[in-house]
Design goal:
Elements: E1 2-9, E2 12-19, E3 26-32, H1 35-41, E4 47-50, H2 64-73, H3 94-105, H4 111-124, E5 132-135, H5 137-144, H6 156-167, H7 172-175, H8 185-203, E6 208-209, E7 222-223
Parallel strand pairs: 1-4, 4-5, 5-7
Antiparallel strand pairs: 1-2, 2-3, 6-7
C-alpha cells in the first residue's frame, strides 16, 4: 500500500509518502511548490489526505462537513477556519476578499482565512483524482487518541503529544529522521496525521463527514 499526507507550508506544501504496511513502512518527505506538484508527487498512491478545503460553498451556507467537524472538535474548533464562498477566490487583496464574502454571507473573512485562500484556489484549479480526500489534522489526532487532552501544536507539550499519538501507528524515529528544511515540525506532524486518515480511506474504514458533491462534482466531505 502507498498512501500520502499533505499540509501547507510557507511557499508550498509538505508531502509525506508512506510505502508498505505496518511499522516497517518506508516514509519519504518532499516540499513542493503547488497543487499540481502535489498531485505529481503522490501519483499512484492508494489515498492522499490533504489539509485544505477541497470544495467551497457557492452561497452563504457553511459546509455541512465543517459544521460536523467543528462540533467534534469542541474547544479546539478554532483550528477549523470556515471555508470562504467561491467568489472570494477571485479576490486580489484582503479588502476585496472581505467585500466578496460580505456580499454573499453578510460577514467579512478573517485574516487567517485570507492567508489560505491562495492554497484553496490552487486545488480548485486542478483536476483531483478520487484518491485525494480532504482531512483535518486536529480532528484526526483526536480520533487517533480520543482520551488525550491535546495542548496547542505550537507548544513543546503539544508537539510531544502528537508525536506520541503518531508513534502508535508509525515509528516516530524513522518517520521524522529525514525532514525537509523548508517544513516546520507542526506541519510535518499534520501531514503524517493526514496520511493516517488516508490509510483509513484506502482500507474503507474512514468516516466521511458531510458526504456529497459540489457543483464541480467534487466530494464535500472531510475524511477522518
Amino acid at each position: 500500500m502507498r498512501i500520502s499526507g499533505v499540509d501547507g507550508v510557507p511557499g508550498g506544501w509538505v508531502v509525506c509518502v508512506l510505502s508498505g504496511s505496518g511499522r516497517t513502512r518506508e516514509v519519504t518527505w518532499t516540499v513542493v511548490p503547488d497543487a499540481a506538484s502535489v498531485l505529481a508527487a503522490t501519483a499512484g498512491c492508494d489515498a492522499v489526505g490533504v489539509d485544505i478545503p477541497l470544495s467551497v460553498p457557492a452561497g452563504a451556507q457553511r459546509r455541512e462537513a465543517e459544521i460536523l467537524a467543528s462540533a467534534r472538535l469542541g474547544r479546539a474548533r478554532s483550528s477549523l477556519f470556515p471555508t470562504p464562498p467561491a467568489p472570494v477566490l477571485d479576490a486580489g487583496s484582503y479588502d476585496e476578499a472581505c467585500a466578496a464574502a460580505q456580499a454573499v454571507t453578510g460577514k467579512k473573512i478573517s485574516l487567517q482565512t485570507w492567508y489560505i485562500v491562495g492554497k484553496i484556489r490552487e486545488f480548485q484549479q486542478v483536476r483531483l483524482p478520487s484518491s485525494v480526500v480532504e482531512a483535518h489534522p486536529e480532528l484526526t489526532f483526536r480520533t487517533m487518541a480520543p482520551s488525550r487532552a491535546f495542548a496547542s501544536k505550537k507548544t513543546a507539550r503539544g508537539a510531544g503529544q502528537r508525536v506520541a499519538a503518531l508513534s502508535e501507528w508509525v515509528p516516530s524515529a524513522a518517520s521524522l529522521g529525514d525532514l525537509p528544511t523548508a517544513a516546520r515540525l507542526d506541519d510535518v506532524l499534520d501531514a503524517l496525521a493526514c496520511a493516517w486518515t488516508a490509510e483509513r480511506v484506502a482500507h474503507g474504514t474512514a468516516e466521511l463527514l458531510g458526504p456529497g458533491t459540489d457543483a464541480l462534482g467534487r466530494s464535500t466531505a472531510i475524511a477522518v
